[in-house]
Amino acid sequence: MADGVIPSNEGRGYVLRRILRRAARFSRSAGMEPPFLGRFVDRVVEVMGGAYPELVERRNSIMRVAKTEEERFNRTLDQGLILVEDAMGAAEADGSMVFPGAVAFLLHDTYGFPVEVHQGDRRRAWAYP
User: Fold this and answer.
1) Are 2 and 55 in contact, with CB atoms under 8 Å apart?
2) Chain segment 33-69, per-residue pLDDT in tens
3) Which ranges constitute the DSSP H helices of the chain?
4) Sign of CA dihedral 76, 112, 36, 56
5) Residue 119: what pLDDT?
6) Are 103 and 83 in contact (CB under 8 A)?
7) Which of 18, 24, 31, 101 has CB atoms 3.0–4.6 Å from 129's, for a disulfide?
8) Contact yes or no for 38/67 (Cβ under 8 A)
9) pLDDT at 89
10) Residue by residue, what is the 3-state secondary structure of 100-128?
11) Phi and psi of 32, rounded to 5°?
């Protein structure tokens, strides 16, 4: 981000988006309350700022980009989890323990939602097409 890369759907921006979203997802699953990516930015700047002065110079910009991406992902994650729960409930009502492939594709393709993200212990019993 200090080099001007911003989260996007292509190239370096896509890689950055995936890294930020993975950090947000794992932090959230570890019980951290959002927003927390800013804390990581502060720590990286503190530790690496001496070797990479552009981190210090662009701290506010990096913080803003990280915060915006985290907010977007949290909205996506919240919406996706509703769809996951609905799909699981519908499948269970039909007596199935197979997560619908069409829903998994929709979540991933339309929302960029990682398929492996589910809530609760119900996940262990589910098969994926």
Assistant:
1) yes
2) 778 888 889 999 999 999 999 999 999 999 999 999 9
3) 11-29, 37-48, 53-57, 59-93, 101-111
4) negative
5) 42
6) yes
7) 101
8) yes
9) 87
10) CHHHHHHHHHHHCCCCCCCCCHHHHHCEC
11) -75, 140
Token pair listed for 115: 């398929």
Angle at 110 between CA 97 and CA 121, to 5 degrees: 30
- Which residue has tokens 């988006």? 17
**Residue among 71, 76, 75 nearest 108 (CA):** 76
| pLDDT class of 29 with cuts at 50, 70, 90 | confident
Tracing tokens 């019980």 back to the chain, one arrives at 31
Longest alpha-carbon distance in the chain: 59
